[in-house]
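Dear support,

I submitted the protein below through the web form. The confirmation email said the job was done, but the results page showed an empty box. After a refresh the structure appeared. I'm attaching both so you can tell me whether what I see now is the final result or a partial one.
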Amino acid sequence: MRHLAIVLLGLLVSMSAARADTRIEVRDAWIRQAPPGAMMLAAYAELANTGDQTVRIAQAGSAAFGVVEIHRTIEEDGISRMRPAGVLEMAPGDAIRLAPGGLHLMLMQPRSDLKAGETVVIDLLTEDGDIIPGVFKVRAPD
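What the results page shows now:
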């Protein structure tokens, strides 16, 4: 029995070590404060792959919102529109900027009004099942 426990522990450690090479850093993460009662907000950040494996971010979620989606702003017939962006693939060393007018996290159905200075955790979920938490600071509009 003791031998089995040692083998299982070794497997868990090796699996953890294999996944430890997947590192995504969420930098300069922020949400623009919206007027009270707003049902949609957007979140921005820089995502950096500091690991040595390609990472595919497939979804996002937060306890502070009913729905979080990865969106891209595109221009159609001279009008800016937001569309789901699909999976974000990041090779080792890559960085992706989520910024106004481009890629962003669409935050829908907020559970409360957010005030400048508050923070919100938004989790990025990879196709491998990893959860990457990001702390986003609410900023007053410019």
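Response: this is the final, complete result; the empty box was a page-load delay. The two ends are 63 Å apart (CA to CA).
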